[in-house]
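Tokens as discussed.
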């Protein structure tokens, strides 16, 4: 009978991880909010907003008259006013160019009245 000699199992050597001496920047975690997140209103509690005769430009014109309106803000005000003019007539008839010109005149008048 032949006896086979098996090699002894290799010993497992564990290596400790290297410890870095470099300082890592502290990572700040955002603070958890103590208040509960606002829930959106249920469809039953949503009420329709009443139609307002004032355009967004008229609402934006309120104030002390010292605000500086940028060209981009003026353009946006004209866009909104022209849209609401078309909406008031139900988007039927009229012409977008006419709405734009009328809205531009309205916004410019409001901005002039803010300056004085």
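Sequence:
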């Amino acid at each position: 009978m032949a006896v086979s000699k098996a090699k002894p199992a290799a010993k497992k050597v564990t290596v400790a991880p290297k410890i870095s001496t470099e300082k890592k920047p502290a990572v700040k975690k955002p603070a958890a909010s103590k208040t509960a997140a606002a829930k959106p209103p249920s469809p039953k509690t949503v009420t329709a907003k009443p139609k307002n005769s004032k355009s967004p430009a008229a609402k934006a014109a309120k104030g002390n008259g010292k605000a500086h309106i940028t060209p981009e803000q003026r353009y946006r005000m004209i866009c909104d006013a022209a849209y609401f003019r078309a909406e008031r007539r139900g988007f039927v008839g009229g012409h977008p160019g006419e709405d734009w010109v009328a809205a531009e005149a309205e916004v410019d008048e409001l901005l002039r009245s803010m300056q004085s």
